[in-house]
Specification:
InterPro entries: DUF6895. The protein has helices at residues 8-23, 45-61, 67-82, 87-95, 101-110, 117-127, 130-133, 139-152, 160-164, 180-193, 206-225, 229-239, 248-261, 282-304. The protein has 322 residues and is an all-alpha fold. It contains 14 helices and no strands.
């Protein structure tokens, strides 16, 4: 009989990671260039939107009495205030009506009930144009935009199934073709299909769920062996989105390796090692640290709901390669 998983192996690195993120909240603040045409979106809006996504997942998967819940709720309120309670997003919508990133940042906040009617009205007008609907995007990006439209209610669409089958994961590719880029693509496909954990395993088509149940554990092991902590945490979040969680031994080993890779402050490097004697560089650590908290919230949420590791197919199951 497989030993049960002690959730402390997940909660302890998550608590340390969230403490570091809270201590570095000022680094998530929007700068004076947030509305500038030449502003660096990846250094301003992107981190703030990812912070909101993570906080939403934590508050959704923890009890109000849980210290993790309180800390995440505080950071979520911070993110909302940084947007001027949505007003900066409304102004950004007028400046860049066909940019998709404001909608995706807003969708993360709207999923928790934080809404700005003016932004939604303006975004809804643009989303109904042919120009918006015919913008050329990769299939994975398209899934993200469609999900954000659906979550905010600015437009309803039945395009997600079609976009899915054009993605790497949707084609059920040969498992040995997995690499860094396909790994990040597949994790985001799952995030969009499950609405960042809100829909749970029900958001995954059965063939994708079965394929991932077979191949995600060895991919995860490969990434952790390579000290690719950011992608490893994203794969752990995918694992928490499957109908059957991986075996407890798989999860235990992965989280022990994540914890060992953490800086004493709780920060997790995207790859490789942190220098224990130096405060972690925000740009190199923030995303992987967010993903560690996100994966932990999804996993402990499933475990708290009584999810257990189920029967798994043999790796290399007949038909996957042929």
């Amino acid at each position: 009989m497989t030993a049960a998983l002690d959730t402390r192996v997940i909660r302890q690195p998550a608590e340390a990671a969230l403490a570091w993120l809270s201590a570095r909240r000022a680094d998530f603040a929007l700068g004076d260039d947030a509305l500038a045409a030449d502003g660096e979106v990846n250094r301003s809006w992107k981190p703030l939107g990812e912070l909101a996504l993570m906080c939403a997942a934590v508050t959704r998967n923890t009890a109000p009495s849980d210290p993790l819940h309180a800390r995440a709720a505080d950071l979520l309120a911070f993110a909302w205030e940084e947007t001027g309670r949505g007003e900066l997003l409304a102004r950004l919508q007028r400046l860049e009506p066909f940019a998709t990133y404001p909608l995706e940042v807003y969708a993360a906040l709207a999923s928790t009930g934080l809404r700005h009617p003016g932004y939604e009205a303006a975004a809804g007008v643009v989303a109904r144009t042919r120009g918006w609907q015919l913008t050329e995007q990769t299939a994975t990006r398209r899934l993200g935009v469609l999900n954000a439209e659906e979550r905010t209610g600015v437009r309803r669409s039945d395009g997600m199934p079609r976009a899915l089958r054009s993605t790497w994961l949707g084609g059920l590719p040969e498992p040995w073709t997995f690499e860094r880029d396909s790994g990040y693509a597949l994790t985001h496909v799952v995030f969009h299909l499950t609405d960042w954990g809100r829909a749970g395993p029900a958001g995954l088509p059965p063939d994708l769920a079965a394929y991932l149940a077979d191949w995600l554990p060895p991919w995860l092991d490969t990434c952790l062996d390579a000290r690719m902590w950011d992608l490893g945490c994203e794969l752990l979040a995918v694992a928490a989105s499957l109908p059957d969680l991986p075996e407890p031994a798989v999860l235990r080993d992965a989280w022990e390796r994540i914890a060992a890779a953490q800086h004493p402050s709780g920060a997790l490097p995207e790859e490789g090692d942190s220098d224990d004697g130096v405060e972690p560089d925000f740009a190199r650590h923030y995303h992987s640290t967010l993903m560690a908290v996100y994966a932990a919230a999804l996993t402990t949420g499933r475990l708290d709901d009584g999810a257990l590791a189920g029967p798994h197919r043999r790796h290399g199951a007949q038909g996957v390669l042929g």
